[in-house]
Amino acid sequence: MDFKTLTSGLSVSPQITIADLPAIRDAGYRAIICNRPDGEGADQPTFDEIQAAAEKLGLEARYLPIVSGKVSDADAAGFGAALTELPGPVLAYCRSGTRSATLWSLSQADRLSVADILATTNAAGYDMGGVVRRIANGGKTPTDRADARFDVVIVGGGAAGISVASSLKSRKPDLDIAIIDPADIHYYQPGWTMVGGGIFDAQDTVRTMGSLIPKDVHWIKAAVAAFEPKDDAVVLDGCRVVKYDRLVVCPGLKLDWHKVEGLVETLGKNGVTSNYRYDLAPYTWELVRGLKKGRAIFTQPPMPIKCAGAPQKAMYLSGDAWLRNGVLKDIDIHFNNAGGVLFGVKDYVPALEGYVKKYGAHLNFFHNLVAVDGEARKAWFDVAKPDTPVERVEMEFDMMHVCPPQTAPDFIRVSPLADAAGWVDVDQSTLRHTSYDNIWSLGDVMNAPNAKTAAAARIQAPIVAENLAADIEGKAPVAQYNGYGSCPLTVERGKIVLAEFGYGGAMLPSFPKFLLDGTKPSRTAWLLKEKILPPIYWKAMLKGREWMAKPEKISAR
Questions:
Q1: Is 250 a catalytic residue?
Q2: Would 144 be classed as within a structural domain?
Q3: Which is the catalytic residue, given 34, 239, 250, 487?
Q4: Exposed end of the chain (fewer CB within 10 Å): N or C?
Q5: Residue ranges, the chain, pLDDT below 70
């Protein structure tokens, strides 16, 4: 039998026969629901035959026949009631299992999120794209009319979304553009490392979203529930529908704090902190200033993560503070990295290794944080060295800086836009979707193999704007992305190793070597990070002023 588990209390399956019933009972099921009308296929037993045989085996049976493609709101409510009334676990079946999965999806729509429902049904092999609006509408049938329509809809109001909106407006001032984002606040996230190092104040990394939305761009303050790319529609929470001619998807990624057991409960106390959260970065500096002796652990999860250098930046700035305070000799620093290298671009590694040695840090590769007990000041890591069985090790700590596991947002992972890993599937040169010609993506959410940094989004935004504008004019893509990303590695207060690179680790320096050699620690790079990049972000990048970010044209062949 091909049972597909949806929950601990319900599985669905294709058509069953009387001969299958003993196996169904032996698998632990206590009731069955038939969602296939009698006589739909010549080879199917009638429900009365199934019910009689099931009852002899001690199984309850319920008949809720659904004509294919015609699941009513009442049908969904009846299915939900049956799940409550029947002893579980329950097996529901129809011809393929799709109708049963659809009934479950609609019956749970007022309890579970759209993303959770789609993830569950997708994992079982059922596509609920055809009823996603109903799921978003609490399981009820909505009207199919659009609540709004725009030339361009941008999902995400972060660095990528606002920048691409501004770049589009500078090219096509008459475009009717909307940004969809539920957040009230916009953060300059590259500044949080500096907050954790005692250099920036946290409040200097914050602006209200309303103050940054470009002039004449609509702001839809809502969360996206689902995408319907075949109908050029975005479904919002509450089932409002926004239609578009062209779509840009850039909502960032999801910090999956809950993936580490015990982490959420202890963040911000018990010596556990993270510069990946606005409210926690000041706590990092508080811990660094207060630590006089003991063990400090800095963690890095498996890739991909945004700003891959941030976990070690925290280590370097902390080590430098302890050195300046004269306590470094009494602090045992550990950098526990789930990966196998210090930094993915080898040209920058020698300089970084010099600072690892300077601060006496231990590099523990293939160490992935899986659990924390903050009150006991203990952490557990799965050590997965190549060709070696995974070993779980325990480490005590006095301070621990955590970089959380990261994934694409739930509503992206379960959408038709995602690749097998859950990221938006784009052509890595043009940033256009591989399946939908009127969709583009940029920033942390798309699957091009580049570093996920704000510097990358700064370069990507004009490229997407240029190619989208060309598409409006009926032209082929005219700009290409070379994978540029930048990671200013703050190795000490006053010096930075400025890593700039593209696809395949190719070096892509912005300045001549005599002016700034990115492979060596530099005060010039520090000045860039501390004094120049923040105003460039607020006053240039988000305003569509493409300083040092003009798109590279696609060469004629």
A1: no
A2: no
A3: 487
A4: C
A5: 1, 141-144, 238, 548-549, 554-557
pLDDT of residue 315: 97
Q: Which residues pair with 331 in a beta bridge?
A: 294
Note the pLDDT of residue 27.
92
* Prediction pTM value: 0.82
Looking at the structure, do residues 106 and 175 belong to the same domain, yes or no? no
- The predicted pLDDT at position 548 comes to 67
Cβ-contact 488, 525 below 8 angstroms: yes
The letter for the amino acid at 468 is L
Instruction: Flag whether 302 is in a domain.
Output: yes
Q: Distance (Å, rounded) from C-alpha 337 to C-alpha 309?
A: 11
Q: 238: helix, coil or strand?
A: coil
Assign 272 to helix, strand or coil: strand
* Distance in angstroms (rounded) separating the CA atoms of residues 219 and 225: 17
Largest CA distance in the chain: 87
How far apart, in whole angstroms, are the C-alpha atoms of residue 124 and residue 126?
A: 6
| Selected catalytic residue, list 94, 250, 307, 403 | 307
Contact call for residues 495 and 462 (beta carbons, < 8 A): no
Element (H, E) at 480: strand 479-480
DSSP 433-477: BSS-TTEEE-GGGB-SSS-B-HHHHHHHHHHHHHHHHHHHTTPPP
Cα 235 versus chain centre, distance: 18
User: Which is nearest to 151 in space by CA: 173, 170, 177?
Assistant: 177
Looking at residue 144, what is its pLDDT? Answer: 63
What is the domain-level CATH number for residue 351? Answer: 3.50.50.60
Considering 95, 112, 136, which residue would you say is the last residue of a domain? 136
* Segments forming the whole domain that contains residue 350: 257-405
pLDDT of residue 557: 44
Which residue, among 410, 402, 349, has the nearest Cα to 379 in the 3D structure?
402
Query: What are the helix and strand counts (H, E) for the chain?
Result: 17, 28
Give domain status of residue 142, yes or no.
Answer: no
Say whether 307 is catalytic: yes
| Nearest 10 degrees: Cα torsion 456, 518, 338, 190 | -50
| Whole-angstrom distance, CA of residue 430 vs CA of residue 386 | 36
Return all residues near 370 (Cβ < 8 A) that are at least 6 apart. Answer: 260, 261, 380, 381, 382, 392
Instruction: Give exposure, 541-554, as e/b (b: 16+ Cβ within 10 Å).
Output: bbbbebeebebeeb
Same domain (yes/no): 173, 185: yes
Q: Does residue 247 sit in the same domain as residue 322?
A: no
Distances (CA, A) of 438 to 116, 248, 444, 467, 468: 27, 9, 20, 11, 8
Say what the pLDDT of residue 307 is.
86
CATH number where 101 lies: 3.90.190.10
| Alpha-carbon span 361 to 348, nearest angstrom | 18
Q: Please, is 346 exposed, middle or buried when counting C-beta atoms within 10 Å of its C-beta (0-12, 13-18, 19+)?
A: exposed
Q: What is the pLDDT of residue 134?
A: 87
Structure tokens at 538: 């607020």
**Structural domain total, the chain:** 3
